[in-house]
């Protein structure tokens, strides 16, 4: 049975599955200083590389599971502000929630708004039982947001092929 792929809404945002039409935006976002510092350099150094990243990393999971990375579009003006997604990440048990924003859209409440919606959908629509989040030890804004979302600090984790120890937060649907 094919997976149904949907777009979602919050009060101020449209959460649209990221597609190759978002390549210029993804290129810009992935090359912001905070993205590189806190999430990592993904080697997306051109719009063509962003297109390939979307096709190879985001679209397959979306087609397979029905969720992946979402481009967040402001309802007020149609501008792309950031991304939020649910990721089947190697090295983690359960699904990982993550977010990133262009600098001009930080501290607007959009990260909480989008993440809270995806957290709700994870359990009500996608059948996810355990939600994870990982963040660097020095990303205090991310840590505060994860705690506000109800995720609890569980310890540290190292992902495959990554030297940095990350903080692991979790939320179980059964709790």
TrEMBL record:
Please tell me the species this chain comes from. Answer: Zhouia spongiae
The name under which this protein is listed is GNAT family N-acetyltransferase
Q: Which SUPFAM superfamilies match?
A: Acyl-CoA N-acyltransferases (Nat)
Give start and end of each N-acetyltransferase domain.
13-174
